[in-house]
Amino acid sequence: MKPTSRTQLAKRIRSDAQRFATLKHELTALDYFCKGTLLKRMMKCGKKGCACQGSPAKRHGPYFECTFKRDNKTVNVRLPTQAAPLYRNAIRQYRKLRKLLDRLERHSRSALAHLAELQSVDRN
Ligand SMILES: [Zn+2]
Question: 64 CA distance to ligand 1 centroid (A)?
Answer without folding.
Answer: 17
